[in-house]
């Protein structure tokens, strides 16, 4: 079972299944390991906390540390104790220590993987202002609500940016942020790439979150030719490289394998199955970037 | 696009894609509709709030109402307004009204589906005390932490219950709750059903959450014969019918299709891909049961 999870973990860190006894000793090694871009740990107890904070602060300058630490609850601490004999410690102290050490704390295994992937693949945002784009006002509204929950701002776009976007949309649709290209992007995904480009060019936008149908327009919905959607996805990848701003995609088809989604996944554009998780991960990335500054 | 989501929604409510203008009029109808067991809504704005509270309170006596309401954030409210012209309203007032009306509020589409499924398929728990069982102390600890986050208690099991469980485990493994049957259940899944049974028999346990490898022991891990795992899953379904206590399964193989998982899914045992989501849904079910009492 450990092995099963270990294989998973080794995608993220080269140390494999690191149930840390002396957490900071692993860090010492990983800090300078050229094959490690981000560090993920599951731990049940911490020994030598001061040493940990010291080493972690050095490490974080070079690469992010994400930790899933058990024992927030009494029952969780009990389970940790009976599992590895580790004393989970007062959780408020753990939280404070992690904060001081700039360690990112997550609350489950899915989050651990998501956050690590994003941290090592995406460019770091300069701030916490995000643009949200979708084919539907409903997706937009829910994603904006969740963005706020995870510390992301969704400001009204500069008039100059709105002027670039407005002609692409059906009259009356919102270019303010969230941007609603409902009705036009399905058949003509180039609209998505043009809207993303306008946002990337805007100094007041630090990251872009596309939510909705992208990735399944051609192969699943038959709404446009495959080449059109693939070209759009290629262009989105290019925009990320050019503007060095993170782009996240939440796709209703995020569970599927399509050529378009694979193009995004294999580059610097993470694809999520859940709109909330995409907002959560972008919020974490913004928080990490801000801590690092 | 509306249709795409509408099909999804119609699995949950017979009203289809109900972007509510007069929310309470839909409720009036669904309240007495024999084909509706649970009611799910996505709404952007509410008109006639007093009428809504009145009708919802009547409805909730018969069936649960789950609502995904946009507009928690400024940007979300802006998106809702530009989408349907609905004024989202002060979110604190919306929250208070939903609480008064005993409406369950969720924050994204995945949650909406999860919660509705659980509400119409599982028996209602008598309280909020849950037992957590797994093959690993790590899964146990994380799930216990998340249980607490969502309002579930994970108390130490009665000595009589622990005495039934202890002989099934390797010496020294915890029977206290969370229960750790690591090392024995993989090859002999009957251990899982016996532990669940002991918990179901305990008056101080209101629900059981199994987390870990169940569902993939035979077909994926080749750790036991398929018949053994299928028999266990059938027995778990029987236990739920007999003791009328909810049983939730989080499986590391929750994305897969195995005969065992399908047996659970097609009965009163929901299967989750994410441990946190299983804890969240069980917490919501406990909350709903408590509101209804």
TrEMBL record, chains A, B:
GO terms for molecular function: ATP binding; ligase activity. Residues 5-119 form the Succinyl-CoA synthetase-like flavodoxin domain. Keywords: ATP-binding, Ligase, Nucleotide-binding. Transmembrane segments: none annotated. The keyword Nucleotide-binding applies. The keyword Amino-acid biosynthesis does not apply. This is Succinyl-CoA synthetase-like flavodoxin domain-containing protein. The lineage of its organism: unclassified sequences, metagenomes, ecological metagenomes.
